[in-house]
Amino acid sequence: MTASTTPHSPAFDIPALLAALPARIADIPALAAARDPHRVSLVEDARQLTRQQLADAVIETAARLRELGVRAGDRVMIVAENSIVQVVLLFATAKLDAWALMSNARLSAAELDAIRTHAAPRVIAYAVDASSDARDHAQRHGAKATPATATPIDIGTWSFVADAHVHAEPVEAASEKQCAALIYTTGTTGTPKGVMLSHRNLMFIATMSSTLRRVGPDDVVYAVLPISHVYGLASVCLGSLHAGATVRLASRFTPEAVRRALAYENVSIFQGVPAMHAKLLEHLQMHGYAWSAPRLRFAYSGGSPLDAALKARVESVYGVPLHNGYGMTESSPTVSQTMLDAPRADVSVGQVIPGVEVRFVMLDGVEAADGEIGELWVRGPNVMLGYYRNPEQTRATVTEDGWLKTGDLAREEADGTLSIVGRSKELIIRSGFNVYPAEVEHVLNAHPDVVQSAVIGRAVEGNEEVVAFVELVAGAKVTPAELIEWCGARLAPYKRPAEVRVLAALPAASTGKILKHRLRELA
Questions:
Q1: d(CA 38, CA 46)
Q2: Can you point out the beta strands (E) in 146-304?
Q3: Do the domain assignments include residue 451?
Protein backbone atom coordinates (compact mmCIF):
# COMPACT_ATOMS: atom_id res chain seq x y z
CA MET A 1 0.00 0.00 0.00
CA THR A 2 1.32 3.41 -0.90
CA ALA A 3 0.71 6.64 0.91
CA SER A 4 1.10 9.84 -1.04
CA THR A 5 4.23 11.24 0.58
CA THR A 6 7.26 11.24 -1.70
CA PRO A 7 10.38 13.42 -1.67
CA HIS A 8 8.79 15.83 -4.15
CA SER A 9 5.16 16.07 -3.03
CA PRO A 10 4.26 18.85 -0.59
CA ALA A 11 3.19 17.92 2.93
CA PHE A 12 -0.53 18.41 3.61
CA ASP A 13 -2.62 18.12 6.76
CA ILE A 14 -5.40 16.24 4.97
CA PRO A 15 -7.99 16.22 7.82
CA ALA A 16 -7.54 20.00 8.20
CA LEU A 17 -7.76 20.52 4.43
CA LEU A 18 -10.99 18.49 4.22
CA ALA A 19 -12.49 20.33 7.19
CA ALA A 20 -11.74 23.70 5.54
CA LEU A 21 -13.31 22.88 2.15
CA PRO A 22 -16.48 24.76 1.17
CA ALA A 23 -19.51 22.57 1.86
CA ARG A 24 -20.89 22.96 -1.67
CA ILE A 25 -19.33 23.72 -5.05
CA ALA A 26 -21.91 26.54 -5.35
CA ASP A 27 -19.96 28.43 -2.66
CA ILE A 28 -17.04 29.01 -5.08
CA PRO A 29 -18.42 32.10 -6.94
CA ALA A 30 -19.53 33.92 -3.77
CA LEU A 31 -16.21 33.28 -2.00
CA ALA A 32 -14.28 34.56 -5.04
CA ALA A 33 -16.50 37.65 -5.33
CA ALA A 34 -15.95 38.48 -1.64
CA ARG A 35 -12.17 38.49 -2.20
CA ASP A 36 -12.06 40.65 -5.35
CA PRO A 37 -15.45 41.36 -6.99
CA HIS A 38 -14.14 43.20 -10.08
CA ARG A 39 -11.55 40.68 -11.29
CA VAL A 40 -12.56 38.82 -14.47
CA SER A 41 -13.63 35.27 -13.73
CA LEU A 42 -14.85 33.82 -17.04
CA VAL A 43 -14.03 34.75 -20.63
CA GLU A 44 -15.84 33.41 -23.67
CA ASP A 45 -15.35 34.58 -27.25
CA ALA A 46 -18.03 37.27 -27.17
CA ARG A 47 -18.55 37.89 -23.44
CA GLN A 48 -16.92 37.89 -20.03
CA LEU A 49 -18.05 38.00 -16.40
CA THR A 50 -16.39 39.45 -13.34
CA ARG A 51 -16.46 37.45 -10.12
CA GLN A 52 -19.37 39.54 -8.79
CA GLN A 53 -21.31 39.15 -12.05
CA LEU A 54 -20.79 35.39 -11.89
CA ALA A 55 -22.03 35.23 -8.28
CA ASP A 56 -25.09 37.37 -9.17
CA ALA A 57 -25.85 35.32 -12.29
CA VAL A 58 -25.75 32.10 -10.25
CA ILE A 59 -28.32 33.48 -7.75
CA GLU A 60 -30.58 34.70 -10.55
CA THR A 61 -30.34 31.42 -12.53
CA ALA A 62 -30.98 29.34 -9.39
CA ALA A 63 -34.20 31.33 -8.90
CA ARG A 64 -35.11 30.60 -12.53
CA LEU A 65 -34.58 26.87 -12.05
CA ARG A 66 -36.66 26.94 -8.86
CA GLU A 67 -39.50 28.59 -10.81
CA LEU A 68 -39.27 25.70 -13.31
CA GLY A 69 -39.89 23.29 -10.43
CA VAL A 70 -36.34 22.18 -9.61
CA ARG A 71 -36.08 20.86 -6.04
CA ALA A 72 -33.18 19.57 -3.96
CA GLY A 73 -32.35 16.04 -5.13
CA ASP A 74 -33.63 16.59 -8.68
CA ARG A 75 -31.39 16.09 -11.68
CA VAL A 76 -30.81 19.08 -13.98
CA MET A 77 -29.41 17.96 -17.32
CA ILE A 78 -27.12 20.64 -18.79
CA VAL A 79 -26.64 20.09 -22.54
CA ALA A 80 -23.77 22.33 -23.54
CA GLU A 81 -20.24 22.86 -24.72
CA ASN A 82 -17.77 24.95 -22.69
CA SER A 83 -19.47 28.31 -22.16
CA ILE A 84 -20.40 30.87 -19.52
CA VAL A 85 -24.03 29.75 -19.49
CA GLN A 86 -22.94 26.16 -18.81
CA VAL A 87 -20.82 27.20 -15.80
CA VAL A 88 -23.61 29.40 -14.40
CA LEU A 89 -26.16 26.58 -14.78
CA LEU A 90 -23.75 24.18 -13.02
CA PHE A 91 -23.39 26.43 -9.96
CA ALA A 92 -27.10 27.39 -9.96
CA THR A 93 -28.11 23.72 -9.94
CA ALA A 94 -25.72 23.00 -7.07
CA LYS A 95 -27.10 26.02 -5.15
CA LEU A 96 -30.50 24.28 -5.06
CA ASP A 97 -28.89 20.99 -3.90
CA ALA A 98 -29.99 19.48 -7.21
CA TRP A 99 -27.57 17.29 -9.20
CA ALA A 100 -25.86 18.79 -12.25
CA LEU A 101 -26.06 16.17 -14.99
CA MET A 102 -23.25 17.37 -17.25
CA SER A 103 -23.90 16.32 -20.86
CA ASN A 104 -21.77 17.16 -23.88
CA ALA A 105 -23.95 18.63 -26.63
CA ARG A 106 -21.83 16.77 -29.19
CA LEU A 107 -23.33 13.43 -28.13
CA SER A 108 -25.57 11.83 -30.75
CA ALA A 109 -29.36 11.92 -30.33
CA ALA A 110 -29.36 8.25 -29.31
CA GLU A 111 -26.58 8.73 -26.72
CA LEU A 112 -28.17 11.81 -25.18
CA ASP A 113 -31.65 10.29 -25.08
CA ALA A 114 -30.35 7.11 -23.39
CA ILE A 115 -28.83 9.25 -20.62
CA ARG A 116 -32.03 11.29 -20.31
CA THR A 117 -34.11 8.14 -19.96
CA HIS A 118 -31.81 6.66 -17.33
CA ALA A 119 -31.32 9.81 -15.21
CA ALA A 120 -34.90 11.17 -15.43
CA PRO A 121 -34.01 14.88 -15.10
CA ARG A 122 -36.53 17.38 -13.74
CA VAL A 123 -35.25 20.01 -16.18
CA ILE A 124 -33.06 19.83 -19.27
CA ALA A 125 -31.25 23.11 -19.98
CA TYR A 126 -29.77 23.65 -23.44
CA ALA A 127 -26.97 26.20 -24.07
CA VAL A 128 -28.51 27.25 -27.39
CA ASP A 129 -26.38 30.38 -27.85
CA ALA A 130 -23.05 28.73 -27.29
CA SER A 131 -23.54 25.41 -29.11
CA SER A 132 -25.23 24.62 -32.42
CA ASP A 133 -25.46 20.98 -31.32
CA ALA A 134 -27.26 22.00 -28.11
CA ARG A 135 -29.62 24.04 -30.30
CA ASP A 136 -30.32 20.95 -32.45
CA HIS A 137 -31.09 18.82 -29.38
CA ALA A 138 -33.34 21.59 -28.00
CA GLN A 139 -35.33 21.74 -31.25
CA ARG A 140 -35.61 17.94 -31.31
CA HIS A 141 -36.97 17.90 -27.75
CA GLY A 142 -39.34 20.85 -28.28
CA ALA A 143 -37.55 23.08 -25.74
CA LYS A 144 -38.94 26.48 -24.71
CA ALA A 145 -36.91 29.69 -24.48
CA THR A 146 -36.32 31.12 -21.02
CA PRO A 147 -37.91 34.58 -20.68
CA ALA A 148 -35.60 37.60 -20.72
CA THR A 149 -34.49 38.92 -17.32
CA ALA A 150 -34.45 42.45 -16.00
CA THR A 151 -30.78 42.29 -15.01
CA PRO A 152 -28.14 43.22 -17.57
CA ILE A 153 -25.74 40.30 -16.94
CA ASP A 154 -25.25 38.58 -20.29
CA ILE A 155 -24.59 34.86 -19.77
CA GLY A 156 -26.05 33.72 -23.10
CA THR A 157 -29.54 32.34 -23.65
CA TRP A 158 -30.68 28.86 -22.71
CA SER A 159 -33.86 26.96 -23.37
CA PHE A 160 -35.45 24.17 -21.34
CA VAL A 161 -37.71 21.15 -21.14
CA ALA A 162 -39.30 20.37 -17.75
CA ASP A 163 -40.82 17.11 -16.48
CA ALA A 164 -43.02 17.37 -13.38
CA HIS A 165 -43.34 13.60 -12.99
CA VAL A 166 -39.85 12.66 -11.83
CA HIS A 167 -38.80 11.88 -8.27
CA ALA A 168 -36.19 13.74 -6.23
CA GLU A 169 -33.40 11.82 -4.50
CA PRO A 170 -32.83 12.20 -0.74
CA VAL A 171 -30.70 15.19 0.29
CA GLU A 172 -27.67 14.81 2.55
CA ALA A 173 -26.31 17.68 4.64
CA ALA A 174 -22.78 16.22 4.67
CA SER A 175 -20.71 17.33 1.68
CA GLU A 176 -19.14 13.87 1.33
CA LYS A 177 -22.60 12.27 0.92
CA GLN A 178 -24.51 14.77 -1.22
CA CYS A 179 -24.20 14.28 -4.99
CA ALA A 180 -23.09 17.43 -6.83
CA ALA A 181 -22.55 16.15 -10.36
CA LEU A 182 -23.69 13.15 -12.35
CA ILE A 183 -21.33 12.32 -15.21
CA TYR A 184 -22.01 9.52 -17.68
CA THR A 185 -18.79 7.87 -18.79
CA THR A 186 -18.19 6.80 -22.37
CA GLY A 187 -16.38 3.78 -20.91
CA THR A 188 -14.22 1.30 -22.78
CA THR A 189 -17.31 -0.85 -23.38
CA GLY A 190 -19.31 1.97 -24.92
CA THR A 191 -22.13 1.47 -22.38
CA PRO A 192 -22.40 4.67 -20.33
CA LYS A 193 -22.67 4.54 -16.54
CA GLY A 194 -23.76 7.49 -14.40
CA VAL A 195 -20.97 8.34 -11.95
CA MET A 196 -22.22 10.18 -8.84
CA LEU A 197 -19.61 12.64 -7.54
CA SER A 198 -20.11 14.36 -4.20
CA HIS A 199 -19.43 17.99 -3.34
CA ARG A 200 -16.44 16.86 -1.29
CA ASN A 201 -15.12 14.69 -4.15
CA LEU A 202 -15.06 17.71 -6.46
CA MET A 203 -13.90 20.27 -3.88
CA PHE A 204 -11.03 18.02 -2.76
CA ILE A 205 -9.72 17.60 -6.33
CA ALA A 206 -10.36 21.27 -7.19
CA THR A 207 -8.34 22.35 -4.15
CA MET A 208 -5.60 19.75 -4.49
CA SER A 209 -5.01 20.16 -8.23
CA SER A 210 -4.94 23.98 -8.08
CA THR A 211 -2.64 23.93 -5.03
CA LEU A 212 -0.20 21.50 -6.64
CA ARG A 213 -0.14 23.70 -9.79
CA ARG A 214 0.11 26.87 -7.62
CA VAL A 215 -2.78 28.47 -9.49
CA GLY A 216 -3.52 32.05 -8.46
CA PRO A 217 -5.34 35.24 -9.49
CA ASP A 218 -2.69 36.13 -12.08
CA ASP A 219 -3.26 32.93 -14.04
CA VAL A 220 -5.33 32.66 -17.22
CA VAL A 221 -6.36 29.03 -17.73
CA TYR A 222 -7.27 27.82 -21.23
CA ALA A 223 -10.32 25.59 -20.69
CA VAL A 224 -10.85 23.50 -23.81
CA LEU A 225 -11.21 20.15 -22.06
CA PRO A 226 -14.99 19.60 -21.89
CA ILE A 227 -16.53 20.71 -18.59
CA SER A 228 -19.07 17.93 -19.21
CA HIS A 229 -16.16 15.56 -18.46
CA VAL A 230 -14.69 15.30 -14.97
CA TYR A 231 -11.17 16.43 -15.89
CA GLY A 232 -12.48 19.69 -17.39
CA LEU A 233 -15.02 20.07 -14.56
CA ALA A 234 -13.03 19.41 -11.39
CA SER A 235 -9.42 20.20 -12.20
CA VAL A 236 -9.69 22.89 -14.89
CA CYS A 237 -12.96 24.73 -14.16
CA LEU A 238 -13.64 24.33 -10.43
CA GLY A 239 -9.96 24.20 -9.45
CA SER A 240 -9.07 27.36 -11.37
CA LEU A 241 -12.10 29.37 -10.19
CA HIS A 242 -11.59 28.28 -6.57
CA ALA A 243 -7.96 29.46 -6.79
CA GLY A 244 -9.07 32.82 -8.19
CA ALA A 245 -7.78 32.42 -11.75
CA THR A 246 -9.45 33.64 -14.94
CA VAL A 247 -10.89 30.79 -17.01
CA ARG A 248 -10.77 31.27 -20.79
CA LEU A 249 -13.53 29.00 -22.10
CA ALA A 250 -13.19 27.35 -25.51
CA SER A 251 -16.14 25.33 -26.77
CA ARG A 252 -14.07 23.12 -29.08
CA PHE A 253 -10.43 22.36 -29.73
CA THR A 254 -9.00 23.90 -32.87
CA PRO A 255 -5.21 24.23 -33.16
CA GLU A 256 -5.44 27.77 -34.56
CA ALA A 257 -7.62 29.00 -31.66
CA VAL A 258 -5.16 27.52 -29.14
CA ARG A 259 -2.20 29.09 -30.99
CA ARG A 260 -3.84 32.52 -30.93
CA ALA A 261 -4.90 32.26 -27.27
CA LEU A 262 -1.38 31.29 -26.19
CA ALA A 263 0.16 34.10 -28.26
CA TYR A 264 -2.26 36.96 -27.56
CA GLU A 265 -4.52 36.22 -24.56
CA ASN A 266 -2.04 35.88 -21.69
CA VAL A 267 -2.77 32.17 -21.23
CA SER A 268 -0.50 30.79 -18.50
CA ILE A 269 -1.93 27.26 -18.11
CA PHE A 270 -2.83 24.87 -20.95
CA GLN A 271 -4.18 21.42 -20.09
CA GLY A 272 -5.07 18.93 -22.80
CA VAL A 273 -5.08 15.32 -23.89
CA PRO A 274 -2.06 14.04 -25.87
CA ALA A 275 -3.92 14.32 -29.18
CA MET A 276 -4.42 18.08 -28.65
CA HIS A 277 -0.71 18.66 -28.13
CA ALA A 278 0.12 16.48 -31.17
CA LYS A 279 -2.32 18.35 -33.41
CA LEU A 280 -1.10 21.77 -32.24
CA LEU A 281 2.49 20.84 -33.17
CA GLU A 282 1.33 19.51 -36.55
CA HIS A 283 -0.57 22.78 -37.18
CA LEU A 284 2.47 24.93 -36.35
CA GLN A 285 4.68 22.84 -38.62
CA MET A 286 2.20 22.73 -41.50
CA HIS A 287 1.72 26.53 -41.54
CA GLY A 288 5.26 27.48 -40.58
CA TYR A 289 4.11 29.42 -37.52
CA ALA A 290 6.68 30.43 -34.93
CA TRP A 291 5.87 29.36 -31.37
CA SER A 292 4.63 32.24 -29.21
CA ALA A 293 3.33 31.75 -25.68
CA PRO A 294 4.87 34.57 -23.62
CA ARG A 295 3.01 33.76 -20.38
CA LEU A 296 2.74 29.95 -20.55
CA ARG A 297 4.15 28.48 -17.33
CA PHE A 298 2.34 25.16 -17.04
CA ALA A 299 1.43 22.58 -19.71
CA TYR A 300 -0.25 19.31 -18.82
CA SER A 301 -1.30 16.12 -20.55
CA GLY A 302 -3.85 13.67 -19.23
CA GLY A 303 -6.90 11.65 -20.20
CA SER A 304 -4.98 9.03 -22.18
CA PRO A 305 -1.43 7.65 -22.28
CA LEU A 306 1.40 10.06 -23.14
CA ASP A 307 4.27 8.69 -25.18
CA ALA A 308 7.89 9.72 -24.82
CA ALA A 309 8.38 10.93 -28.41
CA LEU A 310 5.42 13.33 -28.22
CA LYS A 311 6.51 14.59 -24.78
CA ALA A 312 9.99 15.39 -26.11
CA ARG A 313 8.62 17.18 -29.19
CA VAL A 314 6.15 19.23 -27.13
CA GLU A 315 8.78 20.29 -24.60
CA SER A 316 11.24 21.33 -27.30
CA VAL A 317 8.58 23.60 -28.87
CA TYR A 318 6.74 24.86 -25.76
CA GLY A 319 9.90 25.54 -23.77
CA VAL A 320 8.26 24.30 -20.54
CA PRO A 321 7.94 20.76 -19.11
CA LEU A 322 4.89 18.75 -20.20
CA HIS A 323 3.43 17.45 -16.96
CA ASN A 324 1.49 14.21 -16.90
CA GLY A 325 -1.05 12.56 -14.65
CA TYR A 326 -3.56 9.80 -14.23
CA GLY A 327 -7.18 9.63 -13.17
CA MET A 328 -10.65 8.42 -14.07
CA THR A 329 -14.20 9.70 -13.74
CA GLU A 330 -14.81 7.46 -10.71
CA SER A 331 -11.92 9.14 -8.84
CA SER A 332 -13.02 12.74 -9.59
CA PRO A 333 -10.56 12.28 -11.55
CA THR A 334 -7.03 12.79 -10.20
CA VAL A 335 -5.08 9.90 -8.66
CA SER A 336 -1.51 11.00 -9.47
CA GLN A 337 0.42 13.72 -11.26
CA THR A 338 3.97 14.89 -11.82
CA MET A 339 4.92 17.64 -9.41
CA LEU A 340 5.58 21.23 -10.47
CA ASP A 341 9.11 21.28 -9.01
CA ALA A 342 9.97 17.76 -10.20
CA PRO A 343 9.19 17.44 -13.92
CA ARG A 344 10.15 14.05 -15.32
CA ALA A 345 12.08 12.96 -18.37
CA ASP A 346 10.01 9.75 -18.63
CA VAL A 347 6.25 9.31 -19.14
CA SER A 348 5.48 8.27 -15.57
CA VAL A 349 2.17 9.65 -14.30
CA GLY A 350 3.98 10.97 -11.23
CA GLN A 351 3.26 10.74 -7.53
CA VAL A 352 -0.01 9.72 -5.98
CA ILE A 353 -1.57 12.99 -4.77
CA PRO A 354 -1.67 13.72 -1.02
CA GLY A 355 -4.63 12.16 0.79
CA VAL A 356 -4.98 9.25 -1.64
CA GLU A 357 -3.83 5.65 -1.11
CA VAL A 358 -3.15 3.02 -3.79
CA ARG A 359 -2.68 -0.75 -3.89
CA PHE A 360 -1.61 -3.13 -6.68
CA VAL A 361 -3.69 -6.32 -6.74
CA MET A 362 -3.10 -9.48 -8.81
CA LEU A 363 -5.95 -11.20 -10.68
CA ASP A 364 -6.24 -13.75 -7.86
CA GLY A 365 -6.79 -10.96 -5.33
CA VAL A 366 -3.30 -11.22 -3.81
CA GLU A 367 -1.26 -8.05 -3.28
CA ALA A 368 1.43 -7.65 -5.98
CA ALA A 369 5.07 -7.78 -4.88
CA ASP A 370 7.11 -4.55 -5.00
CA GLY A 371 7.57 -3.42 -8.60
CA GLU A 372 5.15 -6.04 -9.98
CA ILE A 373 2.24 -5.15 -12.25
CA GLY A 374 -1.21 -5.44 -10.69
CA GLU A 375 -4.66 -3.89 -10.96
CA LEU A 376 -4.57 -0.41 -9.42
CA TRP A 377 -6.93 0.09 -6.47
CA VAL A 378 -7.50 3.61 -5.09
CA ARG A 379 -8.94 4.93 -1.82
CA GLY A 380 -9.44 8.51 -0.66
CA PRO A 381 -11.73 11.58 -0.59
CA ASN A 382 -11.81 11.48 -4.41
CA VAL A 383 -13.63 8.11 -4.77
CA MET A 384 -17.17 8.42 -6.18
CA LEU A 385 -20.42 7.81 -4.30
CA GLY A 386 -21.22 5.06 -6.83
CA TYR A 387 -23.05 4.49 -10.11
CA TYR A 388 -26.53 6.01 -10.29
CA ARG A 389 -29.30 3.42 -10.16
CA ASN A 390 -26.77 0.60 -10.50
CA PRO A 391 -25.96 -0.87 -7.06
CA GLU A 392 -24.62 -4.14 -8.52
CA GLN A 393 -22.02 -2.33 -10.64
CA THR A 394 -21.14 -0.12 -7.66
CA ARG A 395 -20.55 -3.17 -5.43
CA ALA A 396 -18.39 -4.75 -8.14
CA THR A 397 -16.27 -1.59 -8.47
CA VAL A 398 -15.95 -0.22 -4.91
CA THR A 399 -15.18 -2.55 -1.99
CA GLU A 400 -16.96 -2.25 1.37
CA ASP A 401 -13.90 -0.57 2.86
CA GLY A 402 -13.78 2.06 0.10
CA TRP A 403 -11.24 0.75 -2.43
CA LEU A 404 -12.02 1.69 -6.04
CA LYS A 405 -10.95 -1.05 -8.48
CA THR A 406 -9.79 1.00 -11.47
CA GLY A 407 -9.46 -1.82 -14.02
CA ASP A 408 -6.08 -0.34 -14.97
CA LEU A 409 -2.81 -2.24 -14.76
CA ALA A 410 -0.04 -0.36 -12.99
CA ARG A 411 3.13 -0.68 -10.96
CA GLU A 412 5.01 1.41 -8.46
CA GLU A 413 8.51 2.36 -9.57
CA ALA A 414 11.52 2.29 -7.22
CA ASP A 415 11.27 6.07 -6.71
CA GLY A 416 7.62 5.82 -5.62
CA THR A 417 6.08 7.11 -8.85
CA LEU A 418 3.24 5.40 -10.67
CA SER A 419 3.41 3.83 -14.14
CA ILE A 420 0.20 2.85 -15.94
CA VAL A 421 0.68 -0.16 -18.18
CA GLY A 422 -2.81 -0.43 -19.68
CA ARG A 423 -6.39 -1.54 -19.12
CA SER A 424 -6.74 -5.05 -17.70
CA LYS A 425 -9.47 -5.64 -20.31
CA GLU A 426 -7.16 -4.44 -23.10
CA LEU A 427 -4.29 -6.80 -22.28
CA ILE A 428 -3.42 -8.85 -25.40
CA ILE A 429 -2.14 -12.39 -24.85
CA ARG A 430 -0.10 -13.39 -27.88
CA SER A 431 1.28 -16.96 -27.92
CA GLY A 432 1.23 -16.95 -24.11
CA PHE A 433 3.03 -13.60 -23.82
CA ASN A 434 1.45 -10.42 -22.40
CA VAL A 435 1.34 -7.48 -24.81
CA TYR A 436 0.38 -4.12 -23.33
CA PRO A 437 -1.10 -1.91 -26.10
CA ALA A 438 0.62 1.20 -24.68
CA GLU A 439 4.06 -0.29 -25.43
CA VAL A 440 3.21 -0.75 -29.11
CA GLU A 441 1.50 2.66 -29.30
CA HIS A 442 4.61 4.38 -27.91
CA VAL A 443 6.73 2.85 -30.67
CA LEU A 444 4.26 3.79 -33.42
CA ASN A 445 3.82 7.34 -32.06
CA ALA A 446 7.59 7.82 -32.20
CA HIS A 447 7.46 7.56 -36.02
CA PRO A 448 7.67 11.09 -37.50
CA ASP A 449 4.69 10.48 -39.81
CA VAL A 450 2.31 9.29 -37.05
CA VAL A 451 0.06 11.76 -35.19
CA GLN A 452 -1.44 9.11 -32.89
CA SER A 453 -2.15 5.39 -32.78
CA ALA A 454 -4.35 2.86 -31.00
CA VAL A 455 -3.61 -0.84 -30.59
CA ILE A 456 -6.12 -3.61 -29.87
CA GLY A 457 -6.15 -7.40 -29.77
CA ARG A 458 -8.01 -9.48 -32.36
CA ALA A 459 -8.96 -13.08 -31.71
CA VAL A 460 -7.61 -15.64 -34.17
CA GLU A 461 -7.87 -19.40 -33.81
CA GLY A 462 -6.38 -20.33 -30.43
CA ASN A 463 -4.56 -17.01 -30.07
CA GLU A 464 -4.71 -13.22 -30.23
CA GLU A 465 -2.93 -10.95 -32.68
CA VAL A 466 -1.93 -7.31 -32.45
CA VAL A 467 -3.78 -4.83 -34.70
CA ALA A 468 -2.78 -1.16 -34.88
CA PHE A 469 -4.78 1.82 -36.16
CA VAL A 470 -2.86 5.00 -36.99
CA GLU A 471 -3.63 8.59 -37.90
CA LEU A 472 -0.91 10.15 -40.07
CA VAL A 473 0.31 13.71 -40.46
CA ALA A 474 -1.00 15.53 -43.53
CA GLY A 475 0.83 14.47 -46.69
CA ALA A 476 2.60 11.49 -45.07
CA LYS A 477 3.73 8.77 -47.48
CA VAL A 478 4.59 5.99 -45.01
CA THR A 479 2.91 2.64 -45.75
CA PRO A 480 1.43 0.12 -43.29
CA ALA A 481 4.21 -2.33 -44.25
CA GLU A 482 6.85 0.28 -43.39
CA LEU A 483 5.22 0.91 -40.01
CA ILE A 484 5.21 -2.84 -39.25
CA GLU A 485 8.90 -2.90 -40.19
CA TRP A 486 9.50 0.12 -37.89
CA CYS A 487 7.89 -1.80 -35.01
CA GLY A 488 9.85 -4.93 -35.91
CA ALA A 489 13.14 -3.11 -35.32
CA ARG A 490 12.01 -1.88 -31.91
CA LEU A 491 9.76 -4.57 -30.39
CA ALA A 492 9.95 -8.27 -29.58
CA PRO A 493 8.43 -10.41 -32.36
CA TYR A 494 5.28 -11.25 -30.36
CA LYS A 495 4.53 -7.52 -29.86
CA ARG A 496 4.70 -6.56 -33.55
CA PRO A 497 1.38 -5.68 -35.21
CA ALA A 498 0.03 -8.30 -37.59
CA GLU A 499 -1.80 -5.47 -39.33
CA VAL A 500 -1.59 -1.69 -39.41
CA ARG A 501 -4.59 0.25 -40.67
CA VAL A 502 -4.47 3.94 -41.59
CA LEU A 503 -7.57 6.01 -40.68
CA ALA A 504 -8.23 9.66 -41.54
CA ALA A 505 -9.07 10.17 -37.85
CA LEU A 506 -9.21 7.79 -34.91
CA PRO A 507 -12.68 7.60 -33.32
CA ALA A 508 -12.59 9.73 -30.17
CA ALA A 509 -14.82 11.02 -27.41
CA SER A 510 -15.25 14.78 -27.05
CA THR A 511 -12.35 14.70 -24.56
CA GLY A 512 -9.98 13.35 -27.22
CA LYS A 513 -9.91 9.91 -25.58
CA ILE A 514 -9.73 7.24 -28.29
CA LEU A 515 -12.75 4.92 -28.32
CA LYS A 516 -11.22 1.46 -28.66
CA HIS A 517 -14.54 -0.35 -28.67
CA ARG A 518 -15.23 1.32 -32.06
CA LEU A 519 -11.88 0.06 -33.35
CA ARG A 520 -12.69 -3.47 -32.19
CA GLU A 521 -15.83 -3.32 -34.33
CA LEU A 522 -13.67 -2.26 -37.32
CA ALA A 523 -11.16 -5.05 -36.67
A1: 19
A2: 159-162, 179-184, 194-198, 220-223, 246-249, 269-272, 298-301
A3: yes
Q: Could you write out the DSSP letters of every residue in 392-455?
A: HHHHHHB-TTS-EEEEEEEEE-TTS-EEEEEEGGG-EEETTEEE-HHHHHHHHHTSTTEEEEEE
What does the pLDDT average to over 328-338?
96
**Is beta strand 322-327 parallel, antiparallel or unpaired with respect to 334-337?**
antiparallel
Q: How many residues does the chain have?
A: 523
Q: Dihedrals φ, ψ of 258, to 5°? A: -65, -45
pLDDT (average), residues 253-273: 96
Show the domain range for 457. Answer: 427-522
Dihedral of CA atoms 17, 21, 25, 27 in degrees, nearest 10, equals -150
Q: Give burial (CB, 10 Å; 0-12/13-18/19+) of 265.
A: middle
Q: Looking at the domain assignment, is residue 369 inside a domain?
A: no
Which amino acid is located at 198 in the chain? S
Short-list 469, 459, 414, 463, CA closest to 437: 469
Residues 360-396: tens digit of each pLDDT: 999 888 999 999 999 999 999 999 999 999 999 999 9
For residue 282, give the nearest of 334, 317, 306 by alpha carbon: 317
Q: Is residue 99 in some structural domain?
A: yes
Are the C-beta atoms of residues 149 and 60 closer than 8 Å to each other?
yes
- Number of domains making up the chain: 2
Average pLDDT for 236-241:
98
Cα 173 from chain centroid?
A: 27
The CATH number of whichever domain residue 455 belongs to comes to 3.30.300.30
Return d(Cα 192, Cα 196) in angstroms, integer. Answer: 13
In the listed set 174, 200, 232, which residue is the last one of a domain according to the structure?
174
What is residue 118's predicted lDDT score, i.e. its pLDDT?
95
Q: Provide mean pLDDT across the span 237-265.
A: 97
Residue type, 509: A
Q: Which of 109-113, 188-192, 264-268, 433-437 has the lowest mean pLDDT?
A: 188-192
Flag whether the pTM goes above 0.90: no
Q: Residue 88 maps to which CATH number?
A: 3.40.50.980
Nearest CA to 84 out of 57, 121, 66, 122 is that of 57
Look at 22-36, 184-198, 394-408, 493-507 and tell me which has the smallest mean pLDDT. 184-198
φ, ψ dihedrals at 437, nearest 5°: -50, -35
Residues 232 and 247 sit within 8 Å (Cβ to Cβ)? no
How do 194-198 and 386-387 pair as beta strands?
antiparallel
Helix (H, G, I), strand (E, B) or coil at 471: strand
**Looking at per-residue confidence, does 7 or 232 come out higher?**
232
Task: Tell which of 174, 208, 238 closes a domain.
Answer: 174
* 3-class secondary-structure state, position 306: coil
Distance in angstroms (rounded) separating the CA atoms of residues 96 and 94: 5
User: Is 514 domain-assigned?
Assistant: yes
